[in-house]
Description:
It contains 6 helices and 7 strands, in the order ββαβαβαβαβαβα. By secondary structure, the protein is of the alpha/beta class. It is globular, with a radius of gyration of 18 Å.
Amino acid sequence: IINKHSGSITVESEPGAGTTFHIYLPASDRELPEAEKMLEGKINGSGRVLVMDDDEFVLTVMGEALSHAGYHVAYAYDGDEAIAMYLSARASGEPYDLIIMDLTIPGGMGGEETIKKLLEMDRNTKAIAASGYAQGSLMSDFKAYGFRGVLAKPFSIDKLCHLVHRVIHFGE
């Protein structure tokens, strides 16, 4: 990926001390389209968001970003846990406004299967697909799979917060 974008990578490693990777990518000199300029700026949101990912670091970063933006965040590590939490929250009268789902969960149910099951139980489920594999048909045609939005990893905190706000408040 780095080579494909005319970048380079170097590694510094010292036994017992750790390893550091330096990734260099060229800066773009293109002007941002108006749609991307609109994403610049802070969003203050509200609502309950369930984040499903098997990576603790991703959960922490997304959770802190969304909490800072005003959302109440809960975490699930796979589809089975996400479905149980979604149904429990709905039964308690405090449903989630949105679920962000990683598509690939090694050893567990990923986002594609999870959204199918949730939509069978509640056709109004709002979900965003997140994946580091941007080549699949789901990422390019997410609505056909029942998702309201898509995040290709890595993504910026601004993009995350703007998409969450748009899906919760405008249903897109």
